[in-house]
Each structure stands twice: as structure tokens, then as C-alpha cells.
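Continuing the series of single-chain predictions for the mutant panel. This is the parent chain; the variants come on the following pages.
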Amino acid sequence: MTIRARTMTDAKQQAHTNAELNWWIFMRVSGLILIFLVLGHIYMTFVQVSESDATFDAVVNKLANPAWKFYDWLLLTLTMLHGTNGARYSIDDYVRSRPNRAWVRNTFFTVVAVIFALGTVGLFSFNPY
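Parent structure:
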């Protein structure tokens, strides 16, 4: 098991490629952005709307707005990328055999791509009118 870098200097020393360093930076930035996106989503979904206003029609009207679709898609995209990269770290740490690691990662990335595609299609193909 490898110990992941906590500072930018450690990350530069441990990174084998610029891509690894960029993913390290992405995890920090996306985690921070996700905090605000999720808190905003929770506020707009559960605090701003009263229980009597939380109807199917309210959700349909919300998703009719392209800005809301983009907000939800951004939340989906960052969450999937952030979670997938974190799982990639775990796969690299715990699957020791190179052939096993390759098929586990490829299978995992395929499942993630299918879920992301279904989420995107479901979100943008939704047209209430």
C-alpha cells in the first residue's frame, strides 16, 4: 500500500507522470467544488422548497430549465470523476497482480462510463413538454 501525498511538494516527488500530479490537484479542487455544489443542491432541494411544494410537477418544472440541467450534470460529472479517481487509487493499492489490476480497472471504468452515459442521457433527454 502506498501513502498518498498530502502536500503539493510531496505530490510532485511521488508523481511518476504529470498526469498523476494533475489528478492529485484535480482531487483537491473537485472535492472543494463538490462541497459547495452538494450543499447548494441540498439547500435548493430540501430547505428552499416546503414539503407541500415538493411535487412531481415542481421537479418537472425545475428540470425544464437548462441551467438546472447543467447544474445537475456538473454535479454528476464531478462526482463520477472524483469517485472514479479515488477508486482507481484503491484498485492500484490493493490489486497487486498487473493482469488482475488491468481487468479490474477496465471493468470498473466500463461500468462507470455506462452509468455516466445513462445519467447524462436521462438528464438531457427529459423534456416535460
